[in-house]
Design goal:
Strands 1-2-3-4 form a four-stranded antiparallel beta sheet, with no helix packed on it. With 209 residues, the protein is an alpha+beta fold. Helix 2 (174-183) crosses helix 3 (189-208). A hairpin with a 4-residue loop joins strand 6 and strand 7 (93-97). It has two domains: 19-65; 68-208, Nucleoside Triphosphate Pyrophosphohydrolase, CATH 3.90.79. The protein is built from three helices and eleven strands, in the order ββββββββαβββαα. It has helices spanning 109-121, 174-183, 189-208; strands at residues 19-26, 29-39, 43-51, 57-65, 67-74, 80-88, 93-97, 100-104, 123-134, 145-155, 168-173.
């Protein structure tokens, strides 16, 4: 363990060492120490000793995601979108979502998204429109999700992982998918955000033509 000092260099987010102590400023917060309490190939759970913006001592739990989150809205020429459904283990709930997954931080996010789309749906796209990024749960995680609208779709072969063995797909009109996000039939944060951003992009693009 390193000795504590007043300033320090932020740690590498990929550093899985179990204990790290180094007083550093993170915005109005001061991080005093950090310990890894759980670690697997996908996430790392950390316990931080901190001083909050008012100077009070406290603790903060942080979940670090080792992959980027990726999601896309696959919009077909007939105005439908492909949704994928699967049972989500943490919630014990069946959910409908757009194609999404995790991509290596060392790889190009778009390339990783193209792989995910093919694996889950068999689709490939000739046009990829960025819809920006979101932070799905920024009070406890550092996860960043990249979103796209995918058009010019062609069908190919599926290559699903074992964890996707129960996955199903369905095509619905784009307006119906947005309605599902509005009325709560779709609850996945990436899907809700991407559908709304895609709707905004399509409305803006239509007004320019």
């Amino acid at each position: 363990m390193s000795s504590r000092h007043e300033t320090g260099r932020p740690r590498d987010p990929q550093d899985d060492s179990p204990v790290w102590e180094n007083r550093i400023k993170i915005g109005p917060w001061t991080q005093i120490s950090r310990a890894v309490t759980y670690n697997n190939p996908w996430i790392r759970v950390e316990h931080h000793q901190v001083q909050d913006p008012s100077g009070q001592d406290g603790v903060y739990g942080v979940v670090h995601f080792k992959n980027r989150a990726l999601a896309c809205v696959p919009l077909h020429e007939d105005g439908t979108v492909t949704l994928v459904g699967q049972h989500r283990y943490p919630l014990d709930l069946w959910t409908w979502e757009i194609p999404e997954g995790g991509g290596s931080r060392e790889a190009d996010p778009l390339t990783e998204m193209q792989r995910e789309l093919m694996e889950e749906t068999g689709l490939s796209a000739s046009e990829w429109i960025p819809l920006g990024v979101i932070h799905p749960s920024n009070s406890v995680t550092d996860e960043t999700a990249h979103l796209w609208l995918a058009r010019g779709l062609t069908e190919g072969s599926l290559a699903r992982e074992s964890t996707e063995g129960d996955m199903k797909t369905m095509r619905v009109p784009f307006a119906e998918a947005v309605a599902m996000a509005l009325d709560g039939r779709i609850t996945d944060a990436l899907t809700v955000t991407a559908l709304f951003r895609a709707s905004g992009w399509l409305t803006s693009a239509s007004s320019r033509t």
